[in-house]
């Protein structure tokens, strides 16, 4: 294994089994956000957790503004990790922008992935009316970036509450806010621009492997219409509208998330044998 890559992205591998299961965080998140569900798969898979460069406990010295000015740098992070651990036919579980990073990685190197699990994916956050509803106007997104520049702590507090929802469980939003604030503001801003102004709609029909779309019932970041659009645009997708609310069901509703992933993997195993 390439220890340089593993250290750069703070890669941690656990569990049994021969097949890798790679968990990719969403924007502003680190690998600890997977703790409520990742351990449930350790008995059957080699679970891989990592941080994007510039987040979590990654090697900050490896951060390069040019590389990470759009999502391709983060896609390369994932492919570098796959090469370092010699992953083939892996299960990829991505949250939010991590879903899109996994989609792009699977298109570039299909041999690395067998299936994708996409939690709250959005190929484009900006409304492109009348043909596409992403949930945000261009002014909304520009305002979010402006707030980051003027009041980073206020931005983190606002976005954490909007992302997590579930106001009856404030500790979840507080954890997300702490994660946001742990990232250097200039790095967070560039990642935010790369995330919220991306438009990957044209890539959805190119996904070469089966995918599960987990869509929260109430999600202001990736609304139901977006999840439906992703499903309609991907040729081998399975769509599940969850009872969960908020953009982080793997944290707020881990039991439902685990059950739906198990069902998806089990159904595909049966199909493969027939």
TrEMBL record:
| Record-linked Pfam families | Abhydrolase_6 (PF12697)
SUPFAM superfamilies from the xrefs?
alpha/beta-Hydrolases
Q: Which InterPro entries match?
A: AB_hydrolase_1 (IPR000073), AB_hydrolase_fold (IPR029058)
- The highest taxon in the source lineage is Bacteria
* Residues annotated as domain AB hydrolase-1: 22-259
The record's comment on protein family reads: Belongs to the AB hydrolase superfamily.
Name of this protein: Sigma factor SigB regulation protein RsbQ
Q: Which organism is it from?
A: Paenibacillus wynnii
From the broadest rank down, the organism's phylogenetic lineage runs: Bacteria, Bacillati, Bacillota, Bacilli, Bacillales
